Amino acid sequence: MQQILKHNIYYLFLLVSLMAGHTSCSEYQKALKSDEVKQKYEVAMQLYEEGLAENKKSKHKKALRLIEQVLPQYRGKPQGEHISFVHANSYYILGAYFDSAYQFERFTKSYPNSQKYEEAFYKSALSYYNESPRYSLDQTETLKAMNKFQEYISKFPDGEHIGDANEKYAALREKLEKKAYEIAKSYHHREDYKAAIEAFDNFIENNPGSKFRDEAYFYKLDAAYILAINSYAQLVEERLIAAQTYYEDYLKYFPQGGYVEQANTIAKEIKERLNNNSENNLG
């Protein structure tokens, strides 16, 4: 019996100890309804820190609500820098990336000498990165994120996040490349071969290091060949010769490419058709 009582006392003591270090719901409600700016600030900061320690978004939601009530009163004051960063970071933690991007940018403009400057600058880029949609959609946020990462790389060449910044920038660039490539390919699928050739030309010129270049060179060749054989008789030879040069380009840049076999088949057909044309002309 005594042992059970000791255990109960121990657990009660432990529970009280844990509760003592946490902001209660009643404290939050009192601060929310209070007109005391200091009280709101202190409860907000405690909730924010607890949210970080416990990984609880519910705490950050409460902190954010209080912060937004008192933030204007702290601008220009010693606590202004801290509360402004906490404000932006709370949005980021909650996944409200449009808001966090704006607030982190505002922070870096207001506090360029802050110890949190690099982190805030980087998180503004991450915010846009997290809003970057799949490649087939509008890429405005992707471009914003790329610009921000590029700025970060320029400002902080030895920064804490330089490796991650370079990786994410490369991933965003690849997304734009894929979008441009898929647009060009869509012309091919719609059998608009002239537009496809022009689009693949632009893609190849604008994306010299892209992983989609192998495919772009091949589908440009394929589009040129199909265009040629479906042209008016007087245009066939000229367009076959153009397609032949695209085959030579493909083989030059991708001798071991993924489409060599198909390209060789097209080249063989081009050669046969050109030979037939020459024989017909001689006859």
TrEMBL record:
<dbReference type="InterPro" id="IPR017689">
    <property type="entry name" value="BamD"/>
</dbReference>
<keyword id="KW-0802">TPR repeat</keyword>
<keyword id="KW-0732">Signal</keyword>
<dbReference type="InterPro" id="IPR039565">
    <property type="entry name" value="BamD-like"/>
</dbReference>
<feature type="repeat" description="TPR">
    <location>
        <begin position="177"/>
        <end position="210"/>
    </location>
</feature>
<dbReference type="InterPro" id="IPR011990">
    <property type="entry name" value="TPR-like_helical_dom_sf"/>
</dbReference>
<keyword id="KW-0998">Cell outer membrane</keyword>
<dbReference type="Pfam" id="PF13525">
    <property type="entry name" value="YfiO"/>
</dbReference>
<keyword id="KW-0472">Membrane</keyword>
<dbReference type="InterPro" id="IPR019734">
    <property type="entry name" value="TPR_rpt"/>
</dbReference>
<feature type="domain" description="Outer membrane lipoprotein BamD-like">
    <location>
        <begin position="44"/>
        <end position="231"/>
    </location>
</feature>
<protein>
    <submittedName>
        <fullName>Outer membrane protein assembly factor BamD</fullName>
    </submittedName>
</protein>
